[in-house]
Design a protein that fits this description.
By secondary structure, the chain is α+β, with helices and mostly antiparallel strands. Helix content is 43%, strand content 12%. The protein binds adenosine-5'-diphosphate (ADP) and magnesium ion.
């Protein structure tokens, strides 16, 4: 486990015409190659993305459309060379460096984040070539893999919650394909282009307004899944966030700011508890297991977050039973 080295990617820096003296020697991020650099004379970051070039181009069209509508999000630098760019078999993108501060956990920062998420979901967005949200299809083996993964990771790092978590999660994981997936997949839930990664560590606050600096997982997906991801994972891997999920009061602040821009449908509100469970079983369980790969359970701050995630009562994140009326505009 170590930070990626810039010297391992000479073709990338050659493509973006970045000399050795204009780039950091190492990634600024443990989990992926993200290199602070000077590109075309401006402070920037060059990062590897996961999807194919067609997706990266669609995502760059989307963020440009958002920015034109005044929504706070980075857009790829306009350069003479391709950006995003295919280099070898991977795609890289250069974004301007956003000078600001991290999330500080205050109510004001939470409200501003909920407001931004609502603006993103409410924006007019081009959907051509956007990656489509892939519905999972788990067979018995992959369910078993999740259950044994949870047993292994909790047994090793949090034995005090092992039995409690497994007693709840194992039956939920076993019935996911019959009880949780179908109502969400077949529920006619409204779609939007969403980041599917709306977390505090993907925001930089400039003059107290958040800017989304990591749009690279964007998909055309049921927007309520993106809201559920934020409900559960907003504080994940963020050193400046409290070491736990949102409290009920924080969630109320976040979700009502979101509700200024998005009027959730009756179907979305009715399915919300199922959508939260969906997100816990898909992203949440993966987060708990994957954290072991990065020794995150050994970090007390991250460990406290993970324990809260594993044991969370989903009733902590209610939405009103009826569509919002009052503040919507
Ligand atoms: N444009 C940017 N401006 C300022 N900081 C950035 C920028 N891009 C990335 N970072 C920093 O690097 C970290 C990792 O970058 P990110 O784009 O989120 O990588 P990943 O896609 O692997 O999650 C962010 O949490 C942030 O601290
Ligand atoms: Mg990120």
């Amino acid at each position: 486990m170590s930070y990626d080295k810039a010297s391992d990617y000479p073709d990338v820096f050659h493509h973006f015409a970045v000399a050795e003296s204009e780039r950091a020697a190492e990634s600024c991020y443990l989990y992926a190659p993200v290199f602070p650099s000077r590109v075309g004379g401006v402070k920037a970051v060059i990062k590897r993305t996961t999807g194919p070039m067609s997706s990266a181009v669609a995502i760059s069209r989307w963020v440009r459309a958002l920015a034109e509508q005044g929504v706070g999000v980075v857009t790829p630098l306009r350069l003479d060379s391709d950006n995003p760019a295919q280099v070898g078999d991977r795609v890289w993108v250069a974004y301007p460096w956003v000078d600001g501060r991290p999330y500080n956990g205050s109510t004001a920062d939470i409200v501003a984040a909920g407001d931004l998420l609502g603006r993103i979901h409410a924006a007019q967005a081009p959907t051509a070539d956007m990656p489509r949200f892939p519905w999972p299809d788990h067979d018995a083996d992959s369910v078993e893999e999740d259950i044994t993964g949870l047993q292994r990771v909790l047994g090793k790092h949090a034995p005090e919650i092992h039995d409690e978590v497994l007693a709840r999660m194992a039956p939920w994981l076993e019935s996911f394909m019959t009880e949780t997936l179908p109502p969400v997949r077949d529920g006619g839930l409204p779609r939007a282009v969403v980041s599917m990664d709306f977390k505090a560590n993907n925001l930089v606050y400039v003059d107290d307004e958040p800017v989304l600096i990591d749009p690279d997982n964007a998909e055309y997906a049921p927007r309520i899944l993106d809201l559920a991801l934020a409900a559960l994972l907003f504080h994940n891997e963020t050193a400046t966030a409290p070491p736990r999920l949102f409290t009920g009061a924080e969630w109320a602040a976040f979700s009502s700011a979101y509700g200024r821009h998005v009027r959730l449908t009756a179907a979305e509100l009715a399915l919300w508890p199922t959508v939260l469970r969906y997100m816990l079983l898909e992203w949440g369980v993966w987060t708990l297991i994957d954290a072991d790969e990065w020794d995150d359970w050994d970090d007390p701050h991250k460990r406290n977050f993970l324990v809260d995630l594993a044991t969370v009562d989903l009733g902590r994140f209610p939405l009103p039973a009826e569509p919002y009326n009052s503040e919507f505009h």
